[in-house]
Amino acid sequence: MENNDKNFTGSIPEFYDTYLVPLIFEEFADDLATRIMVESPNSILEIAAGSGVVPRALGAKIAADVKYTITDLNQPMLDYAKQKQPKNPNISWQQADVMALPFEDNAFDAVVCQFGFMFFPDKIAAMKEVKRVLKPNGELIFNVWDCIENNVFADLVTQAASQIHPENPPLFLERTPHGFYDNDAMRKTLQDAGFKSIIIQDKVAMSTAPSALHAAKAYCHGTPLRNELEALGEGSLDQVTQAAADWIAKFYGKAEVAAQIQGFVITAS
Ligand SMILES: C[S@@+](CC[C@H](N)C(=O)[O-])C[C@H]1O[C@@H](n2cnc3c(N)ncnc32)[C@H](O)[C@@H]1O
């Protein structure tokens, strides 16, 4: 993973939440929130909460005596999430790097993480840190994306960007969000960190956007791909965004577009 891949700052949080969240994250967030509630935890820690799509789904479901702590590495993402969250006295917000969580041992019944693990620089160390703050029978529940070939718009955007910059292809999407999907490797990582009762399920959904340009903007402006494109020179961000929109439109048309997304949902205790 390159250093900038973890930087969700500047105008990324707003584009992320406005364009990308409705495109690919909402259905998976509802799914995670429903799964967590089955276990009726009294204390929940969310890591890598981003612009707050899971907090909006889960915050509405938790009972009045449940403690829900929401964290992310990037304060701008957390600020964005906080201002969109309906007031709820059960919720607390805290900037936190998963690699060194600022919480005591055995503090939470459940830890939830939506599409965050791919970003963590050392997966076993991150999972060990999660295990440390979980109570002995606590549950970790998270999801990750499948490979980029099974996530159509991300794949088409990466193809378009690579056609424009063949010498230096901007591979953020392939490298990081779609870089941690091998089920055997994931299971082994969890086992090495001390987790048992590991269940991995696949989940397929459709992503829809009002136009091909909207889908292209979601990925190019609302993710750290933006950092990579801006580093390739002035005008590169807009040039790749338009090329990605044209490439999506070639297969799905210019107006409302819909294509498959696929990920895995993992529980471990
Ligand atoms: C793809 S976003 C997912 C955000 C949110 N969970 C969602 O579903 O929209 C990945 C998130 O991981 C966060 N992140 C990256 N590295 C992190 C770390 N070391 N510790 C905690 N969060 C991290 C980023 O700030 C970003 O918000």
Comma- or semicolon-separated keywords:
globular; Rossmann fold; seven-stranded mixed sheet; binds S-adenosylmethionine; alpha/beta
CATH superfamily: Vaccinia Virus protein VP39
- The proportion of residues in beta strands is 15-25%
| Count of domain modules | 1
Helix content: 40-55%
Oligomeric state: single chain
Q: Which cofactors or ions or other ligands sit in this model?
A: S-adenosylmethionine
State the separation between the terminal residues, measured CA to CA: 27 Å
Based on CA atoms alone, the radius of gyration comes out at: 18 Å
What is the overall shape?
A: globular
**Number of DSSP helices?**
10
Low-confidence stretches: none
Structural class: alpha/beta
* SSE topology string: HEHEHEEHEHHHEHHHE
Please provide a written account of the structure:
By secondary structure, the protein is of the alpha/beta class. It has a single domain (3-268), classed as Rossmann fold (3-Layer(aba) Sandwich), CATH 3.40.50. The protein contains ten helices and seven strands. It has a seven-stranded mixed beta sheet with strand order 3-2-1-4-5-7-6, with helices on both faces. Strand 1, helix 2 (53-59) and strand 2 (67-72) form a beta-alpha-beta unit. The protein binds S-adenosylmethionine (SAM). S-adenosylmethionine binds next to helix 1 and helix 2.
